[in-house]
Amino acid sequence: ERVSFRTLNRDTGNRVRRQFVDEQTGEPVETDNQAKGYEVGKGEYLELDPEELEAIAIESKRTIEIDEFVPKNEIDELYLNNPYYLVPDGEVGQQAFAVIREAINKEGMVAIGKVVFTSREHVIALEARGKGMMGITLRYPYEVRDEKDYFDDIPDEKVP
């Protein structure tokens, strides 16, 4: 069902492990000495302790905030990321879930909203799928590369 691989040293056949090293000294840094930092300037970091990281972590509410409705064909495939099946959470949400599902299905639209999971806010597109809905996380524009950076150097060929 799923195949996983390990990185090996070709010469010895031994498994290779990752190690964090100090960028300046090249010395290994033990886990106890590692900290999270936010870059505030070139090579200048604001170190955050675990309590501060916990305070700024986005909390998952198990809800999706819908911002707008758009025609499905207006979403470029490049922005589609991961699909998820969505179901209502208990009896309280069933009616709202059904209203949203039927409205987007009838109008041929998708709902665009925000959801938090894995401590990160994601943009998500909701579309009707049978009795449920499918949510597809969308990439942010900064995550999508411009095709011109790759295709502009391809010469125009006349195909007979």
Q: What is the percent of helical residues? A: 10-25%
Quaternary = single chain
Report strand %: 25-35%
Mean pLDDT: 89
Model regions low in confidence, pLDDT < 50 over at least 5 residues = none
State the order of secondary-structure elements, H for helix, E for strand: EEHEEHEEEH
Q: What is the number of beta strands?
A: 7
Write down the overall geometry. Answer: extended
- Rg of Cα set: 23 Å
What spatial order of strands do you see in the largest sheet? 3-5-6-7-4
**Secondary-structure-derived class:** alpha+beta
User: How widely separated are the two ends?
Assistant: 45 Å
Give the biggest beta sheet. Answer: 5 strands, antiparallel
Number of helices: 3
Commentary on this structure:
This protein is α+β, with helices and mostly antiparallel strands. Helices cover 18% and strands 32% of the residues. It contains 3 helices and 7 strands. It has a 5-stranded antiparallel beta sheet. The chain has a two-stranded antiparallel ribbon with strand order 1-2. The radius of gyration is 23 Å and the shape is extended. The two termini are 45 Å apart. The relative contact order is 0.13. The model has no long low-confidence stretch (mean pLDDT 89).
